[in-house]
Structures are given as C-alpha cells and as structure tokens.
Amino acid sequence: MQGLITKKSYCPYCGEPIELILDTSVPQQTYIEDCQVCCRPILISVTVDNDGYIDLQVRSENE
Q: For the whole model, what pTM was predicted?
C-alpha cells in the first residue's frame, strides 16, 4: 500500500475533526501541521508497517 491516503482524526486542542493526507510510501515520519480549525500546531506521527497497517498518533505540541 503506497501513495497518498486521507485519514480523519481530532485536534488535541479544540477537539474538532480534522482531515489529514498521509504519504504511506514513507514508513515512518513525524511532522507538525496546524489545525484547520484553531490553527494550533499538531504533532503528527505516522508509522506504516510491512502489511500496510497505519499507526497514526496526533498530539499537542507540549505532550
């Protein structure tokens, strides 16, 4: 499973649903993206294993 996919999650600050576009061709990545609602920085960690399972973690900047 490689390519771009869309995943839904929730902002750790305001709790609003957010939509993330993930690049599954990269096995492990961590980056910061601003919330589409409250504009606060969200730390996003994505791990894709060999079977294509995606582990998505969304945290506030201070966690």
A: 0.84
Q: Please determine, for residue 61, whether its predicted confidence score (pLDDT) is greater than 60.
A: yes
Classify 42 as helix, strand or coil: strand
> In total, how many domains does the chain have?
1
Q: What percent of the chain has pLDDT over 70?
A: 97
Task: Provide the CB-side half-sphere exposure for 11 (13 A, CA).
Answer: 15
Note whether 58 and 42 are within 8 A (CB).
yes
* Domain span including residue 27: 4-60
CA trace torsion 47, 55, 15, 31 (10° rounding): 0
Q: How far apart are CA 18 and CA 6, in angstroms?
A: 10
Bridge partners, residue 8, by sequence: 19
